[in-house]
Amino acid sequence: MKNYTIKTIFIAFLILLTNNIFCIDIVPLEKENLEQIEQVQHILEQDLDARYAIFEEKDGGLELAMKYIVSKNLITLVAKDDNGLIVGVINYHTKLSKIGSAIEWITSWFTLKKIPRNIHILIVDQDCRGQKIGTLLMKAALTDLYNHKITSIQLSVNPKNTHAQAFYTKLDFKKNAYSSNQWCTFYINISDGSFLKN
């Protein structure tokens, strides 16, 4: 875990230098730290109140989102400002369950493709948007996934959230043609590491 934290901070620092932002650190969430959990919950509440619900139901959506945030099976990175306050969060997984791993082994044997990993949550505090914090969080997550030899990433967006759709498109995510009316699915292939150059 220590090496992962140092590597993530170093990568975030390099990205910060290229973007002329010097007040943001990208670090793993301390899932046992109640103050940090409350800060993340506050950011999630803003997003739900903005009607860009992370999950289908507004009622209970926050509770479900927080289960993702604190899950031991998922990775949660946070962006901290120069005062140590959390201003953004991204949540994703690098490993599959035992059943998922078995399915991946079988399907990859036939198709030579692995099951894409999901980015579940990416939210930036409303007062801090437009400062490339979301881009920093995404690049840190993609770098971690790339280092885990994961090649394909996907995420889902509320169709009403056109701002988020434009954001993902700018980061070279492609919209899945089979997206439903309830969710727009985006994907990216990171096998060549080209996302590191953007």
Task: Furnish the topology, listing elements before pairings.
Elements: H1 2-19, E1 25-28, H2 34-49, H3 61-70, E2 75-80, E3 86-92, H4 98-111, E4 117-124, H5 133-147, E5 152-157, H6 162-170, E6 174-175, E7 184-189
Parallel strand pairs: 4-5
Antiparallel strand pairs: 1-2, 2-3, 3-4, 5-7, 6-7
Helix pairs in contact: 1-5, 2-3
* CATH fold-level assignment: Aminopeptidase
How many distinct folded domains?
A: 1
Shape: globular
Query: How would you name the oligomeric state of the polypeptide chains in this document?
Result: single chain
Gyration radius (Cα, Å) is 16 Å
- The secondary structure category is alpha+beta
Q: Would you identify the CATH H-level superfamily? A: Gcn5-related N-acetyltransferase (GNAT)
- Catalogue the unreliable spans: 49-56
End-to-end separation in angstroms reads 27 Å
Total beta-strand segments: 7
CATH class: Alpha Beta
Q: Biggest β-sheet: count, sense, barrel?
A: 7 strands, mixed
Strand content: 15-25%
Description:
This protein has 198 residues and is of the alpha+beta class. The protein has one domain: Gcn5-related N-acetyltransferase (GNAT) (Aminopeptidase, 3-Layer(aba) Sandwich). Helix content is 41%, strand content 20%. It contains 6 helices and 7 strands. The chain has a 7-stranded mixed β-sheet, with helices on both faces. It is globular and about 40 Å long. The relative contact order is 0.14.
Care to give the gist of this entry?
The protein is α+β, with helices and mostly antiparallel strands and 198 residues long. It has helices at 2-19, 34-49, 61-70, 98-111, 133-147, 162-170; strands at 25-28, 75-80, 86-92, 117-124, 152-157, 174-175, 184-189. The protein has one domain: Gcn5-related N-acetyltransferase (GNAT) (Aminopeptidase, 3-Layer(aba) Sandwich), CATH 3.40.630.30.
